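User: Show me a protein chain along with its predicted structure.
Assistant: Here is one chain, sequence first, then structure tokens.
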Amino acid sequence: MDIITMMKDYIKLALMIIPLVAASTVMGGSIKETKSQYDMGLKYLTGQEVIKNVEHGFQLVKQASDKGFSEAQYLLANLYLNGTGVDKSKEKSFELLNKAADQNNVSALLFLGRVYGSGAGGYEIVVDNSKAFQFYRRAALQGDAYAQSKVGFLFAYGKGVKQDKSMAAKWYTKAAEQGDANAQYNIGVAYQYGTGIAKNETLAREWFELAAKQGNRMAIKELKDLE
């Protein structure tokens, strides 16, 4: 084998290995090591299996966050928001939420959806349904049932996005199929009245029954009205 062929084979091998190494690394630390650090931080924060030490727990979570671990960034945002193990700082909390969301952390995306949709967290931001929609949609695209239900709701009422009853029905269905009770009720209503989807009273009743089994009061009322 000549030197040129050997070099080509080496480059091919390197190109295969580099992405694997990068995927197992979180800004200088392996994912396994960083997650272990995060998990230990959780234990100290809650006193699970160790003597509770909130300040030490905070430091461990912060170290994992500094390495880019999105779960740690999300938790750290909450610790700063509530002043747990550290002085309260809504500015740092909001910054960390966005860092976690930039990595498509579902919990952070949902939280920011609430922040922009209803002012959750008390951050100094202007309520903006269009931004709330975008955050919920990103979480919904990752398969989160609650986010899918919220996206359906926002489409149904034209909040933060152009009203589209058929899109609302689509997202309600996705969430309902995963067992979200509110979505089951809402898609039941859509079938009952033919809103954004072909009217089908049989399917409406079936969805109401599923939602009612989970204690959804509106679905329970609908079933009584149908008797």
